[in-house]
Structures are given as structure tokens and as C-alpha cells.
Amino acid sequence: MGKSGLLLHVCCAPCAAGCVERLIAEDREVTLYFSNSNIATEEEFARRLVSVEALARIFRLPLEVDPYDHAAWLERVAGLEAEPEKGARCPVCFGFSLERAARRAAELGVGFATTLTVSPHKSSRVIFEAGARWEHFEPYDFKKRDGFRRSRELARQYEFYMQNFCGCEFSLR
Ligand code: SF4
């Protein structure tokens, strides 16, 4: 049987490294999809992208970049600005990026998953609920099997940029 394709929504390189390693071990044919219009500034978006480009080179994977459109993201989360991190804004934020990944995966005729589940700061259940809107969403729980620790280990090894906030301006407070 040939490898099965997967579009992997990537939030950042330190989270993606362990996910990519696992998917390659499972013989998935991975395309990276950097879609992160939630990030507060274009400078920060570019900073995270540099490490994702390095990740793509290291693992020899194709990378697609969804153009930065923070205005559209702000419109989607309007009214939820005052919510705390892990509050009601975050599932909407997940849905925003997953919707874009879902569209691209459908064009490519493959399933899609997200590196967001590797973080212990994010509930995999909430992410799966956001992804359940699409039949071709694959609920990979990357924090399983010590995924986060392994991902950080690889990120240190490859000297990826490690941000200290989630992404949006409201997570900076
Ligand atoms: S805190 Fe993180 S997950 Fe929540 S809305 Fe902001 S960027 Fe999105």
C-alpha cells in the first residue's frame, strides 16, 4: 500500500517537530501548512515561519504558507477579546485556522491534522470538537506518547525559535 497523504496544520516549529517525526514513522506523506493569522503581528508570524522553513528543510517536506490575514481573524473573534487564554475565544481561533487547512486539504484530496494538540496548554478535546466539523479531519493527539517533551527536545537540537506567548495580542496580557 502506498503512503497516505496528510496536510499538517503547523502552529510553530517547536510544536511541529515531534508531530512530524511521529507521522513520518507512521509512513504518512506529510505536507506542512503554516496558517496562523491569529498571531498578533506580521513580524512574529515571520519569526515563527523561519523555523518552520528550517523544519521543512530538515525533514524534506513540502511547506505551504497561508498568507497572513490578522484582520479576518480579528473579525472572527470579535466580542471575545476579553476572554482569558483557554476561554471562549480559543475554540473560535482553532476553528479559524482549521477551516483554512480543511479547505486546502480538500483541494489536495487528503486528510488534515493539527500540531496544536501537542501543547499541554491546549485541550485536545476542544481542538477535536473544532475539527469535527470536517469529515476529513484526523484527530491526532500529539501530546500522547510523551509527544510534547520529544518535540521540545528536537526544537532545542535544531535551535528553533521558541516564543513565550500563544500568539494573539490578547494572550500577551
Ligand atoms: S490565546 Fe492562543 S489559542 Fe487562544 S485565541 Fe489567542 S492565539 Fe488563539
Automatic annotation (TrEMBL):
<keyword id="KW-0676">Redox-active center</keyword>
<dbReference type="GO" id="GO:0051539">
    <property type="term" value="F:4 iron, 4 sulfur cluster binding"/>
</dbReference>
<dbReference type="GO" id="GO:0046872">
    <property type="term" value="F:metal ion binding"/>
</dbReference>
<keyword id="KW-0408">Iron</keyword>
<comment type="pathway">
    <text>tRNA modification; tRNA-queuosine biosynthesis.</text>
</comment>
<keyword id="KW-0411">Iron-sulfur</keyword>
<keyword id="KW-0671">Queuosine biosynthesis</keyword>
<dbReference type="GO" id="GO:0052693">
    <property type="term" value="F:epoxyqueuosine reductase activity"/>
</dbReference>
<keyword id="KW-0479">Metal-binding</keyword>
<dbReference type="InterPro" id="IPR003828">
    <property type="entry name" value="QueH"/>
</dbReference>
<protein>
    <recommendedName>
        <fullName>Epoxyqueuosine reductase QueH</fullName>
        <ecNumber>1.17.99.6</ecNumber>
    </recommendedName>
</protein>
<keyword id="KW-0004">4Fe-4S</keyword>
<keyword id="KW-0819">tRNA processing</keyword>
<comment type="similarity">
    <text>Belongs to the QueH family.</text>
</comment>
<comment type="function">
    <text>Catalyzes the conversion of epoxyqueuosine (oQ) to queuosine (Q), which is a hypermodified base found in the wobble positions of tRNA(Asp), tRNA(Asn), tRNA(His) and tRNA(Tyr).</text>
</comment>
<dbReference type="Pfam" id="PF02677">
    <property type="entry name" value="QueH"/>
</dbReference>
<keyword id="KW-1015">Disulfide bond</keyword>
<keyword id="KW-0560">Oxidoreductase</keyword>
<dbReference type="GO" id="GO:0008616">
    <property type="term" value="P:tRNA queuosine(34) biosynthetic process"/>
</dbReference>
